[in-house]
């Protein structure tokens, strides 16, 4: 049974990896690596997020700067396209995860 389960898991992973959305994420990610503005903004967001968390989420100045940086980043079509495709990939993964959780829950509770 373990071999059969592994086979199905590999099929699911391959399905996701071969999906249009996943392939688009890879392509766009590669383009973003060559875009200095996007790289700089993403780096700045990460730094600001850390600062904001360390401040106990109380520093409004950091929060405002973080919001403005995110807004600038989300105004770049390439980045928005990446996020849209990434969300679809994550939805596929979450669907599989939910289905597996439901399946195992059913199996485990069936025996009780």
Quick summary:
With 112 residues, the protein is mostly helical. Helix content is 88%, strand content 0%. It contains five helices and no strands.
* Helix content percent band: over 70%
Order of helices and strands: HHHHH
Rg calculated over all Cα atoms:
20 Å
Number of helices: 5
Average pLDDT rating = 93
Gross morphology is flat
Strand content: under 5%
Topology:
Layout: H1 2-18, H2 20-33, H3 36-54, H4 60-73, H5 77-110
Describe this structure in words.
The two termini are 22 Å apart. The relative contact order is 0.11. By secondary structure, this protein is mainly alpha-helical. The protein has helices spanning 2-18, 20-33, 36-54, 60-73, 77-110.
Q: Which descriptors would you attach to this protein?
A:
5 helices; mainly alpha; 112 residues; single chain
């Amino acid at each position: 049974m373990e071999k059969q389960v592994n086979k199905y898991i590999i099929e699911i992973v391959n399905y996701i990896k071969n999906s249009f959305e996943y392939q688009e994420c890879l392509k766009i990610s590669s383009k973003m690596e060559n875009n200095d503005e996007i790289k700089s903004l993403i780096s700045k967001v990460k730094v600001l997020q850390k600062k904001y968390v360390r401040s106990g989420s109380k520093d409004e100045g950091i929060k405002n700067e973080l919001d403005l940086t995110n807004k600038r980043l989300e105004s770049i079509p390439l980045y928005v396209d990446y996020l849209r495709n990434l969300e679809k990939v994550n939805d596929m993964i979450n669907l599989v995860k939910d289905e597996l959780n439901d399946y195992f829950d059913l199996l485990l509770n069936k025996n009780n």
